[in-house]
């Protein structure tokens, strides 16, 4: 029986593997699976077994899963094509007789208006209907998503967004990866859905103050309307689709879609989640 980590060449998947190893899992029990052949080969240095897979090609999946395996299905990055790709993984894993599928989903996926949620909701529904044992990890926002914001604030002294007074309960990628590792090696989590979010939810004004603390300069929060934000994004060179997506996400935040939902994350990892200021400091150093 193995622990199969899909998306192992991505930032989250790689961190899940390092967390498993840090928790004493035998590298020989881990299968690191990903699409990029060179990046997959590079993981062999960790002592883990590797496999090249493509969610869109079911023929690459059948031989990766074995009876009794626990599989981490890291949601794919192909927006618009993820539901079918996730279904391919679920079908192959179920056919192989895996013991459980752990899926990384979106916050409140079955009830939110979050622009990113529909594909996750559809995947959750398919997973539940498949009959395969499952655990669902609904990851909130990653603080690392604000790396570019940090750079912009350093240059301009402004954090501009159309989030209003909405709050974001972000946590570090490492926090979410550790939760995934714990979920893979912990018994009794079948049928459980965890709403994972940071311990502290911040609004735009508070985030600007955090940016100022990290950068050592004044940073003010410029609260924009959705229309003004879209116009600014277009003026900055974004295409209409991307500008609409970014502004739409901010509208979701303003409506509370990424606010704190539970203490599941800190409970799973057995420690407080990483404060945004610590993650931003690490980003600034790098």
From TrEMBL:
Signal peptide: none annotated. InterPro entries: NAD(P)-bd_dom (IPR016040), NAD(P)-bd_dom_sf (IPR036291), NmrA-type_oxidoreductase (IPR052718). SUPFAM superfamilies: NAD(P)-binding Rossmann-fold domains (SSF51735). The lineage of its organism: Bacteria, Bacillati, Actinomycetota, Actinomycetes, Micrococcales. It holds the Pfam family NAD_binding_10. This is NAD(P)-dependent oxidoreductase. It comes from the Bacteria. Residues 7-181 form the NAD(P)-binding domain.
